[in-house]
């Protein structure tokens, strides 16, 4: 048998190849033996994958296998390892029924590319997790790694004796297999795509509880068990509520009794593995959770759970329908949160917290149709963005409003019933909704899913034929249809605003009359897109805008506050409103006792406007304004923690020292924010840094300490931080990791950090697109917020360079557009 070539390369699967293979191959099952013992003290993962499949006799195809393939047999006969090249095992002269056995090893286990091994700095314990979307299962075991070749998977895992192994199902047996190892056997999964199977291992802390018909499990590393124990009641309740809601709403109970959620170190996000969701454990707060922490926990939990139906039970045929997976999960998460949990303001929170990100990307060079052309898997990675997730979520909500809740639910139930454990395309879902609603949606899907950009809906009160909504499309074409509401407010005797009427309308073409729109008088307001039912840039009349800018806090309802905030943030983004006026509105809303569900998002927006949009010479004044409002908010029950954390991030003024230091005794994350801001302001105290590091129960406290040093106005400190974050890329995803960008790229240190911006571009342009969850976090979370025209020109060129992988190009385009808008708002660049 000839030797395998030493250089292991890999190719991205194309859509044409996937279609050809799917037409040829029918996978019967996978039986995968995994040896994790080499990961206890080393980096080696071993697998033997037995694939049973049928095809046309005499045909040829290939199996995906990225690793060191050591042995291949097909129907009992050895296959020459020369047939292994570019991450594929090439097979010829296949029989009608085949059994392929591929043994391989994988040593690339330290960069979150499919398999990730972590040593906990707190106690030296080793944990291993897998995450295979979109095509990383091939790094762990040989397989047909495409979504429409679904099959049952049965895993057998040899692991260190002290480890617990989690997979998609409960183990059928666990047996001692030596003095130091155990063998875990897992029964067949349902027919699943390769990207949603999972094997995790480590000495996990486990919590199990029966809730209704389900056996619920929570897992985390030992050093975080006190925090998981604290949050377990909330997590278990949300899980119980979500499984009940989705099972009833979709007409399909979850497909097994057991449902596990595994919190793992150094993972940037979460993954919807069927029956065994993995989360990055930075989602477990190391201090008392704030309302926003709790809302985000619910949102992520319900998003990943929704995938059990939309993505796992029914799976897209190819990655061009990725948006269906992700947008639907995001939509269903807010739907379930609002209907089945205590987070009843989920849609308002979406309008002010997340949806603005979708509007921003859709207005820039990285805009694309929700349903895009995906010629290969590499391009699919570029579509894990705000268009797919957030615009897609809003558009699905618009669809549900258009067809009506009852028809929408009936259509979903019919869809899941017909396509369970299969693969679909968009037309399958649309057909089910058309049948349930009696509406022709063909024009709707083309208008909403295939065209990029955001329509603008403006209220016109000056026309001779009466009030109307004027809809314009960004490409100058026919506007999309919109179903939305305009809420009219008149001045109230107490100085507030009272609702006069809510006018619901379905637009058609570029102009739709509003004959019933009431006259609200002087000081009144018409709020366009009230309730945030459609995805559109909303503009009201001049008098209403004046009232909105001066009296947004007088609006009576949480959703009204959210829509008002979203409107002014969009006006800032498009250059129609300056940062000072935008900050006025945000601070007025914060001063008016808003719902707790909005407070942290509003505080964060205010901080960003004050520190990133504002001209450098005015940042101090803007930050002081935010600090005053935050200090006042800290006196209100339930808001103290987020308010003081914002205060600590925008001001190092000694007048706040006593207030902040007293609170930081019981709030370690607040302590890190205090030290970071003081470091940037020349008030660094090395002893305080050491003391807080020792006091912090977070195993990754050293990352938070490094973020403090990254804020120092010293080139040596910047150099050390840049090396770890961007060059070595070895910082675990943690609370400290999320603070790095604001610590490093500071406007008051622009001259110091500007050279690092070019070096940043050098590094990210060379990324290979692997380890999606972690690498994309680096690009999105650490893009420079300082720069000049020369940097923009270079970044824009890289964003269109075909030598840069698609996912990196897309995110460079997003970051470049945002930086350009910052520079315009700061007066450093012409608009």
TrEMBL record:
A single GO BP term for this record reads:
proteolysis
Q: Name one Pfam family in it.
A: ERAP1_C
Q: Which GO terms describe its cellular component?
A: cytoplasm; extracellular space; membrane
GO molecular-function terms, A-Z: alanyl aminopeptidase activity; metalloaminopeptidase activity; peptide binding; zinc ion binding
Q: How would you classify this enzyme at the top EC level?
A: hydrolase
Task: Give the cofactors, semicolon-separated.
Answer: Zn(2+)
Annotated keywords: Aminopeptidase, Hydrolase, Metal-binding, Metalloprotease, Protease, Zinc
Enzyme Commission numbers on file: 3.4.11.2
Q: Which reaction does it catalyse?
A: Release of an N-terminal amino acid, Xaa-|-Yaa- from a peptide, amide or arylamide. Xaa is preferably Ala, but may be most amino acids including Pro (slow action). When a terminal hydrophobic residue is followed by a prolyl residue, the two may be released as an intact Xaa-Pro dipeptide
Positions of the Aminopeptidase N-like N-terminal domain: 107-196
Q: Which residues form the ERAP1-like C-terminal domain?
A: 527-821
Protein family membership: Belongs to the peptidase M1 family.
NCBIfam families this protein is in?
pepN_strep_liv
Q: What is the name attached to this protein's record?
A: Aminopeptidase N
Give the originating organism: Nocardioides bruguierae
């Amino acid at each position: 048998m000839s030797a395998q070539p030493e250089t292991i390369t890999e190719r991205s699967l194309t859509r044409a190849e996937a279609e050809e293979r799917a037409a040829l191959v029918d996978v019967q099952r996978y039986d995968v033996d995994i040896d994790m013992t080499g990961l206890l003290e080393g980096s080696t993962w071993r697998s033997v994958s037995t694939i049973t499949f049928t095809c046309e006799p005499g045909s040829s195809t290939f199996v995906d296998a990225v690793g060191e393939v050591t042995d291949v047999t097909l129907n009992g006969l050895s296959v020459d390892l020369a047939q292994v090249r570019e991450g594929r095992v090439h097979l010829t002269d296949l029989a009608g029924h085949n059994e392929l056995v591929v043994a391989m090893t994988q040593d690339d286990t330290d960069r979150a590319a499919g398999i990730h091994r972590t040593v906990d700095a707190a106690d030296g314990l080793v944990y291993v997790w897998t995450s295979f979307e979109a095509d990383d299962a091939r790094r762990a075991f040989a397989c047909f790694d495409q979504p429409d070749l679904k099959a049952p998977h049965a895993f057998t895992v040899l692991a260190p004796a002290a480890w617990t192994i989690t997979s998609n199902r409960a183990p059928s047996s666990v047996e001692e297999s030596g003095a130091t190892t155990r063998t875990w056997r897992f029964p067949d999964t349902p027919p699943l795509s390769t990207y949603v199977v999972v094997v995790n291992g480590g000495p996990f802390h486990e919590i199990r509880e029966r809730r209704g018909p389900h056996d619920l499990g929570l897992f985390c590393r030992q050093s975080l068990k006190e925090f998981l124990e604290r949050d377990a009641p909330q997590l278990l309740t949300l899980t119980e509520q979500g499984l009940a809601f989705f099972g009833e709403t979709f007409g399909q109970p979850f497909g097994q009794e057991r449902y596990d959620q595994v919190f793992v170190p150094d993972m940037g996000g979460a993954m919807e593995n069927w029956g065994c969701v993995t989360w990055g454990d930075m989602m477990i707060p190391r201090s008392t959770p704030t309302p926003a922490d709790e809302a985000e926990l619910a949102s992520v939990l319900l998003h990943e759970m929704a995938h059990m139906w939309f993505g796992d039970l029914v799976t897209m045929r190819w990655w061009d329908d990725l948006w269906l997976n992700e947008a639907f999960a995001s939509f269903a998460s807010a739907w379930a949160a609002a209907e089945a949990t205590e987070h009843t303001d989920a849609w308002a929170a979406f309008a002010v917290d997340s949806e603005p990100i979708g509007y921003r990307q859709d207005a820039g060079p990285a805009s694309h149709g929700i349903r895009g052309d995906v010629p290969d898997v590499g391009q699919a990675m570029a579509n894990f963005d705000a268009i797919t997730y957030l615009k897609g979520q809003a558009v699905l909500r618009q669809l549900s409003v258009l067809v009506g809740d009852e028809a929408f639910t009936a259509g979903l139930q019919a869809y899941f019933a017909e396509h369970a454990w299969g693969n679909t395309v968009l037309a399958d879902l649309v057909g089910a909704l058309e049948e349930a609603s009696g509406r022709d949606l063909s024009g709707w899907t083309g208008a909403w899913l295939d065209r990029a950009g955001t329509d603008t809906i403006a209220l016109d009160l000056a026309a001779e034929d009466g009030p109307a909504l004027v809809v314009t499309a960004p490409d100058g074409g026919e506007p999309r249809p919109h179903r939305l509401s305009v809420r009219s407010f008149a001045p109230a005797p107490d100085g507030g605003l009272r609702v006069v009427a809510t006018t619901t309308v379905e637009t058609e073409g570029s102009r739709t009359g509003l004959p019933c729109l009431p006259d609200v008088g002087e000081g009144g307001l018409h709020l366009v897109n009230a309730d945030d039912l459609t995805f559109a840039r909303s503009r009201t009349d001049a008098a209403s805008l004046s009232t909105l800018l001066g009296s947004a806090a007088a609006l009576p309802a949480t959703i009204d506050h959210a829509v008002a905030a979203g409107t002014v943030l969009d006006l800032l983004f498009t250059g129609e409103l300056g940062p000072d006026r935008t900050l006025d509105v945000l601070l007025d809303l914060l001063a008016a006792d808003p719902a707790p569900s909005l407070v942290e998002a509003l505080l964060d927006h205010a901080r960003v406007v004050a520190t990133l949009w504002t001209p450098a010479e005015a940042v101090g004044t803007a930050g002081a304004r935010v600090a005053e409002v935050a200090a006042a908010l800290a006196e209100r029950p339930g808001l103290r923690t987020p308010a003081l954390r914002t205060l600590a991030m925008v001001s190092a003024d000694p007048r706040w020292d006593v207030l902040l230091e007293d609170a930081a005794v019981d709030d370690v994350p607040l302590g890190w924010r205090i030290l970071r801001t003081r470091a940037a302001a020349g008030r660094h105290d090395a002893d305080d840094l050491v003391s807080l590091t020792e006091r912090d129960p977070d195993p990754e406290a050293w990352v938070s300490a490094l973020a403090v040093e990254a804020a120092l106005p010293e080139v040596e400190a910047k150099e050390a931080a840049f090396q770890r974050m961007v060059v070595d890329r070895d910082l675990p995803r943690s609370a400290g990791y999320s603070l790095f960008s604001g610590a490093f790229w500071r406007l008051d240190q622009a001259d110091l950090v500007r050279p690092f911006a070019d070096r940043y571009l050098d590094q990210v342009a060379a990324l290979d697109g692997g380890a999606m969850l972690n690498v994309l976090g680096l690009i999105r979370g650490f893009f420079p917020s300082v720069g000049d025209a020369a940097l923009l020109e270079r970044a824009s060129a890289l964003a269109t360079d075909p030598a840069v992988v698609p996912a990196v190009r897309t995110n460079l385009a997003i970051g470049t557009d945002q930086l350009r808008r910052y520079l315009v708002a700061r007066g450093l660049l012409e608009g």
